[in-house]
Give the backbone structure.
Amino acid sequence: MRNKKVIIFLLLVVGIIYTNSLFAGFVWDDRALVVKKQLFFSRPENAFKILAACDAPLGGKYPYYRPLNTLTYMMDHYLWGVHPLWYHVENLLLHALVVILFYFLLIEAFNDKRLAFIASLLFAVYPTNTEAVDAVFNRNMLLCAVFSISSLLFLANGGRKWTALSFLAYFLGLLSKEPAVVLPFFLLSFSLTSREKGLRVSWKVLAGFFTLTVFYFIIRRLVLGAFIANTGISFSLSRVKLILSVYFAHFRLMFFPFRLNALYTQKTVSFSAFKAATAISGVLLLVYLSLGRKIPDPVKAGAQWIFWGLLPVSNIVKIPSAPVADRYQYMILFGFVLMLGYLVRAFTKEKAVPAIALTAALAAAFGVRTFERNPVWRDNISLYSSMIRADTGNAVAYSNLSDIYARRGDLAAAIRDAKMALLLNPSMVSARLNLGMAYAKQGRVDEAIKEFKEILSAVPGHILARMDLGLAYMEKGQFPDAVIQFRTVIGLDPTVTGAHLFLGISYEKEGFLKDAMSEFQQVLALEPGNALALEQIAEIEHT
């Protein structure tokens, strides 16, 4: 087949399979990383702050340094504000670009157009990729893949100019997401074991890649305060069990990508002898396929890419967001579909009709599942409900649904799901907070106070629980108790405007007008023009 026809076909496949993802909204971490940062993105000078900040959706210090990804969100802000359609269009186009780049890379590396077509088609429709494509906050993985594959493709072209572009693409991949770091290690192992010249590189080129890697980790150290993560590398018995369980989960997702979940619970990574044996056998098989003398180079390359690709997501360095996720598969799958494509060719003995039939059957099965999976990411209720359908023991999903229903005013549903989350995990603070707030909105103030106190007995410094407890005391007219809570919040964080405002109101209700005025003035210092503070000051002045 001609390249032009193949490209058009692959683009059509991606467009058809993912067309129902385009009308989704912002979900999950999209709110923190995109929607709530619009004011920040509106100031061009903040581009420099992005280069010197961690990528933290929930605030605090995370071991993520992905400035290039965040810069794309800033660019999106200038192009179309917060219209989710165009963000999803970008993700789809990035995935399509990855598929096309992968196709050309395989042609350059192995001079086999049929293999390149089969592998790139399977990658285009693979079900585990839906999480990376459908959620805007996972664009970092798409960017990482674009630049990583581009780096290899530039390298395969040879010459100094292409090598320089390969270095640049690799570094941009590192600035997009951490898995790009496996590329030099793959090049090293493949150069030592391959007979093909396509991806074999000289020691000078390898030295260049590893020098860039060191430079990247120095930048991470300066920005994040750590080369990798504050938890560091650990090989305790519990960590080894986790690693083996994670390897099993990734092997399962590769071979059986049909039982997917956006948030895998502890049950997914629980240890068992069977999982450990499967994981160890899988790693040993990868090693054999990577080093065996008679192993064909496409299989060898695929095995080596999987071997190195699994290391960053293995939890040797513990991943704080989730030990296992479908999106972690995106980069790893290049190796798997390359091996799978080679097996399809070998099984059909290069006969056109059987090869087309088998490829079509696999692509159809994967494509249908991907198309069915896309609507899960339409909105947060759909997303969290899908988590519960996949695993009825998912306390986090119940808690998240409770929060959404409370914000929408469906307090009965909010209380129901918060109680379910606490039944599954009695120590879940977020669920208890949601339950207390829902009780308060229903007027069940005593029950709300009980929940807030329960939280504070375990986490005395929980600011939201203290604020809500103070508001509940105000609702009951217990202003001295409310004063204690708001003063405690201010002691924990003097910049909480609401604490000063409600402390002032509580003082006013108790007749301490001078103290109340002082708090309202503090509100205006933190938030000039605050209407409520100005109104309260006016009332005191006319008293």
